Structures are given as C-alpha cells and as structure tokens.
Amino acid sequence: MYTINAQEAPTTTVDTEGAESTKIQWLLTSADGAPNFALRRFIVGPGGHTPRHSHDWEHEVYILRGEGVVVTDQGEVAVATDQAILVAPDESHQFRCTGPDSLEMLCIVPNGPATAGH
Amino acid sequence: MYTINAQEAPTTTVDTEGAESTKIQWLLTSADGAPNFALRRFIVGPGGHTPRHSHDWEHEVYILRGEGVVVTDQGEVAVATDQAILVAPDESHQFRCTGPDSLEMLCIVPNGPATAGH
Asked: In sequence order, which residues have a C-beta less than 8 Å from that of residue B45 and are 6 or more positions away?
C-alpha cells in the first residue's frame, strides 16, 4: 500500500499554454506502483482555468471543493462539490473556476501519453 | 461529456460478505462511456467497514470526508480527508470508519472483473 495526503503533497504550477492560476499534484502514479491509471489533484485559483484543448485519452474528474464551469463545444456546464465528470477522448474541454475560492478537483487519466514523465 | 452529482446519484448497499454499513455509488462506468476505469464513491457509516479481502486489481482511493483506518497484512494506517491511497493488486485490505461521521471515499478500479455488471 502506498499513501499520501494531498494537503502535504508536492504541488507544481501548470505551465501549459492556455492555463491560468492552475496547480497540479501527481498523487498516485506508475512511479508509486499504479498499474493502469494516475490520480492527480488540480487546484484552479479564482478566475483561473485549465487549457482549452483535446487529446485522445479520457478524463474522469471529481470536484472536491469550489465552483466552476466545464467548457466544451456543446457549451458550458456548471459544476460544484461532489460532481463527477467524464470527458471523453478527443472531446475539447476546459475547466474554469468561477467562485471566490479555488476549484479543487481530482482528475484520473490512463497511464501512457497522459502521464509521460510521471 | 457525461456528468452526475454524487449527492443525487443512485446509492446501493454493499451486500458482500464481510461488509458492514457500507453503501456504493457507481458514478462513472463503461455504461457511461468510460473507456478504461470506473469511478465509485463509498459511504461507510460509523463503526462500519468494507470486506477484508484481496483481488487481482488495484484500488486508487481518495478520502473525501471522515476518519478511518486501512487494515492490511502490514497493520493499520489511519486516513483522513484528502488522503490518497494505492492498494496494489493482490494486497489484502479493508477500510474501516473510525469517526463519528461517515467515511466517504472515491475508489477507482480498472474496467474488467472489478466492474462486472456495471
């Protein structure tokens, strides 16, 4: 068993083009022994957002705290605490923090290109 | 994109032998289009626990709320809010709620035997 508390985990700024006020924590990865998928936590500050992009792997997201919207080609969907979201492969998406506090969310991705370097 | 709020999601009692006061919500599954892994939420009531067992797939767990312990062959580890836990394949494990409120946690498993029927 491997365990880490996100409140104490290393945090890095997402410097991908199009990201704003977004930090990431790689909590469980293949380096920790995860065979198939990686668990990350994102912290998006007020007014911040992840890149608007698409890729050929899915996201499974769970909103821990805060308020936001998911932007897709079909429009915007409001999300809040305890919302689970499946972003399908190749679906354009962006997460935006719309509340006064940070939007905190988990995002699970399959091992492979999505987890390169981790 | 598919989305569901766990506060409104269907909830069923875990009737596996060895489980006590444990409910499950299947939030994101292959039936919703998830290609590789399923996101479930467990709600373990005070004094309750999941079965003590092992299987050949991993768990990636994230504690949302509450206090508990994970029991393994190496002993007990206390866990609380924002704890991420990797239970390796074939590792014996049990989650026990030790606090006055329910232990709420996400548990992600690979599609396959772990998700049969979902």
From this structure: B21, B22, B97, B102
User: Between chains, do B58 and A80 touch, taking CB under 8 Å as contact?
Assistant: no
pLDDT in tens, B53-87: 999 999 999 999 999 999 999 999 999 999 999 99
Q: Are A104 and A41 in contact (CB under 8 A)?
A: yes
Alpha-carbon distance of B118 to B111, in angstroms, equals: 9
- Strand duo A59-65 + A2-5: pairing: unpaired
Judged by CB atoms closer than 8 Å, whether chains meet at B86 and A7 is answered as: no
Chain A contact for B73 (CB, 8 A cutoff): no
ipTM for the whole complex: 0.97
- What predicted TM-score, i.e. pTM, was given to this entire model? 0.98
Smallest CA–CA distance, residue B52 to chain A, in Å, is 14
Contact residues on chain B for A93, CB-CB shorter than 8 A? 1
pLDDT at A75: 95
Q: Do B28 and A60 touch (CB under 8 A)?
A: yes
Smallest CA–CA distance from A25 into chain B, residue: B84
Q: Give the mean model confidence (pLDDT) for residues A91-105.
A: 98
d(CA B103, CA A51): 34
pLDDT at A49: 98
What's the pLDDT tens digit per position in A31-51? 999 999 999 999 999 999 999
Give contacts of A85 with chain B, Cβ < 8 Å.
1-3
